[in-house]
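pls ignore typos typing on phone
flavin-adenine dinucleotide + seq
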Amino acid sequence: MRHFAIIGSGPAGYYTAEAAQKAFGDEVRIDVFDRLPVPYGLIRTGVAPDHQSIKAVSRRFEKAALSDNVRFVGNVTIGEDVTIAELQELYDAVILATGAPRDRALGIPGEDLDNVFGSAAFVGWYNGHPEFAALAPDLSGNTAVVIGMGNVALDVARILAKAPAEFAGSDIVAHAREALAESRLQKIVILGRRGPHQIMMTPKELGELGELERAAPHVAAADLPAPEEDAILEPGLRKSVSHLRAFAATPEHIRAEKPVEIEFAFMSSPKALIGKDKVESIEIEKTELVRGRAEGTGETETIRADLVIACIGYRTSPIPGVPFDERAGRFANDEGRILPGLYCVGWARRGPSGTIGTNRPDGYATIEHIVEDIAAGVLGRATRRGGVGFDALAAERGLDVVSFNDWKKIEEAEEKAAREGAPREKFVDVEAMIRARG
Ligand SMILES: Cc1cc2nc3c(=O)[nH]c(=O)nc-3n(C[C@H](O)[C@H](O)[C@H](O)COP(=O)(O)OP(=O)(O)OC[C@H]3O[C@@H](n4cnc5c(N)ncnc54)[C@H](O)[C@@H]3O)c2cc1C
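k done
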């Protein structure tokens, strides 16, 4: 019997568990750890609350989670409650699927001003991640600036722009729903260093901006390349750019029917955030493209910014004893191998890119490496104690472990508390989650 510890119950963690089950059948026992008492990582705390069909992928992971040879071990933080070295004593393979939960810094003056957030914090706030539930962004100003031209920036801009009725059927948490209903924002600027042909926004998500009840997107026609230049783009990007063209073609009097404007500011690099205590404006430098890279032109301007959310990428949190690649912001690894018996997968391996599905081949490839390493004798003989050994350690330390059964009780309580038409009302603090399991 082989024993695997997977650290992190997001997509990468569960796809890896699924792959291990396929490869080892009844010859494996898998413990899936999470620092939260609830599973599924960013499916719960990242994916937008108004995109419920995407969140439904977690049902697939339930199949693995409910099998006899897979356990969920929630409310245990690896690196704090238990060390990696302790897990390596107990399990044949330890697989880090801890994601990339820290915001990358902008690295410009004024970043520490009030009402400046990274997207991990801001998205965590509206999605009820316990770490960010108390964020309390001030939405009483006129203008929000969202930095970044990817799908996370689109999620953030859309959530800021939506009218309360547009959250029907979503699982946006109560504190965010209430704060957004009181929002006085009239302008949301999506700002990026490069141009319309360099956006990382997918067509469906970009198209949604054109269908909002009280907000209209605006692209300056002069910012768009000549239409014939779209021909060289790959089809998805071409479609996204066609949305930008449609936004640019919307007459002003039609846009003016909606009280909130979503403005695209291309070729703009943030240089400084300005304000006394709270952010008030942002200084930007106009850029030009030199071999695909944005380079400053020296021309600067200052635009109003009462709220700033930087959606510019994420970093993995280091864990004591695990080699870390500081530059890349993830564990140092060679195709998922960190040290003998220690692996990483998903965002913790490759950084924050790709969709939920991208983590599937990643999980399967990691298990293939483990199969090879077992064959090569790297993992030694199958003599480790696995979950039984962990349970003894947890009892000795007084850890309050949350099982999958406990999670199902928490889930049931969240579903019961849902407002009409919504799938659930999430608990936003760990204590409440623990209480809900009974
Ligand atoms: C805002 C946002 C929106 C997104 N929207 C979409 C979308 O609409 N569609 C789509 O396909 N993809 C989307 N993605 C991408 C998708 O969420 C990721 O591809 C995927 O979640 C990465 O999976 P992961 O398992 O590597 O990391 P995560 O999902 O982050 O899971 C990591 C898990 O590890 C746990 N963990 C971390 N550290 C420890 C520790 N020390 N001990 C124990 N547990 C720990 C965490 O609590 C978490 O549960 C979105 C991402 C973001 C940020």
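The pocket of flavin-adenine dinucleotide is lined by residues 7-13, 33-36, 41-42, 46-47, 51, 54, 77-79, 97-99, 101, 123, 152, 155, 317, 319, 346-348, 354-356, 359 (CB under 6 Å). The chain has 16 helices and 19 strands. more later
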